[in-house]
């Protein structure tokens, strides 16, 4: 099919790039406009807080595909900001005055890193970690012996803390909650993660928050004074703020689409405007476990939703039904979560010979709705793969068998 209108994708990150690739693989021969504000071709984000910071990976190795592949597929990478769009006329309006007429549109706008609204938050040396450029700026400052303060004890914050320790930095994590990782994992797993970081030399301050960052007169080291809410003062060469993201749903909201802390989509990832789809961090989609909706900020979600959205842009009506799943690498350990553990009413703990633990969450009908595991990556991977398959199946299961490490998970499938 040839048309003057293009398949337009707003957001040239993981979702946008994979969707553009899928459009070609699915047979679209018309134009594809992949529009993003960053100058970089699509790349994966997980290495930003890990391999890029430790020096184990280079920026070029984070690319979603070889640069030549985009040219071979005639995918136009437009470096620009989309100011607005008209879902009726099917026109995108760019900030530089250009317009793009589209056949179908995918909003893969991701999110904006949350920032602190306190004195000194814009001081040099205080930054978030969201882009390749952010990682490059931070990596250059992670030198042995430097003091690093990480604000936020979630996944990104802990990954940065681990990477900084690998580089020989002195690290303090400041977390406002009573424990690490919020409600994302069971409390025992959060405690195990805290113990792992403490064993690796990270200082953790719970129930604590920064009140100001200041470069004080006479400090010949050029460091930042980080004043906490209890009056204590930390000294930092670098401050990384990792307190989550806000979904970038501004242009969708302005265009009149249904938005609720993200862009609302149906099971096909189509928005309230016909021919306009959304996927990735910004999409709020139906849960496979009930009538509620969820939003996922994960590699797996980006990878799988991009492909479904692209096929549906071409007229398919595929329903998205992937099981939520994510992982986090910290030192030689890995944390994985599959499904929606928060939906469980009963938790079963399985302890492996390696000391790793998997927490299985069952709902009121005895169905497995989530599994969370933490331990040595080498020991956890296979067991969590089987755990994911059990959650995927969604059938009632015997809790005593789950708890018994002598009963092979494979036998329960």
TrEMBL record:
Gene3D superfamilies: 3.30.390.30, FAD/NAD(P)-binding domain. This is Pyridine nucleotide-disulfide oxidoreductase. One of its GO terms (cellular component) is cytoplasm. Residues 8-306 form the FAD/NAD(P)-binding domain. Its cofactor is FAD. GO terms for molecular function: oxidoreductase activity, acting on NAD(P)H. PANTHER family: APOPTOSIS-INDUCING FACTOR 1, RIESKE DOMAIN-CONTAINING PROTEIN-RELATED. Keywords: FAD, Flavoprotein, Oxidoreductase. The lineage of its organism: Bacteria, Pseudomonadati, Pseudomonadota, Betaproteobacteria, Burkholderiales. SUPFAM superfamilies: FAD/NAD(P)-binding domain, FAD/NAD-linked reductases, dimerisation (C-terminal) domain. It comes from the Bacteria. Transmembrane segments: none annotated. Pfam families: Pyr_redox_2, Reductase_C. Residues 325-413 form the Reductase C-terminal domain.
